[in-house]
Amino acid sequence: MPIHAGAASKLLLAYLEPEELARWISRPLSAFTAKTVTDPKRLRSELARIRRLGWAQDKGENAPSIQAFAAPIFTRTGKMVAAVSVPFLTGTEAGRMEVIRMAAIEAAEKISRAMPA
Questions:
Q1: Are 72 and 83 in contact (CB under 8 A)?
Q2: Selecting from 3.30.559.30, 3.30.450.40, 1.25.40.10, 1.10.1780.10, what CATH number does the domain 7-114 have?
């Protein structure tokens, strides 16, 4: 799975240390669909938004008919170590998408709270 195209992968990028992020973004970013972000400046902007919101969305970046929401899982020390991602098909009703987004966030929060010390 490409690191820059998808909800969970963008979430993982968003929480990298700056030097590590720079290493990943310095590589060529391939387009898989017309919605794949390939411009490093635009990707950095999206990653900052993801950190600010605390969740990520894939709007068909890796496959045109598949979207997803993802939320971070943190250790008790606050380090992001994984993500919960819930994919769904393009065309899903907006109300249902919100239910999916909230379910991903709530699941990630519960897993984070259950992480060992």
A1: yes
A2: 3.30.450.40
